[in-house]
Amino acid sequence: MIIDAHSHVHDPLAAHLGLLDEAGVDRAVLFGTRPHPERAGDLAALRREMAVLERALAGRGATLDAYREAWRELDAALAAWPERFIGFLSVPLGLGTQETAELVEREVVGRGLRGIGELTPPPGGAALIEPVLRAAADQGRLPVVVHGSAPTTAEDLTTLAALARRYREVPLVVSQVGGQHWMQAIELVRDTPNMYLELSTASIVFAVRLAISEIPDRTLFGSDAPYGDPVLARTLVERVTGPGEVRDRVLGGTIAELVGLA
Question: Is the pTM of this model over 0.90?
Answer without folding.
Answer: yes
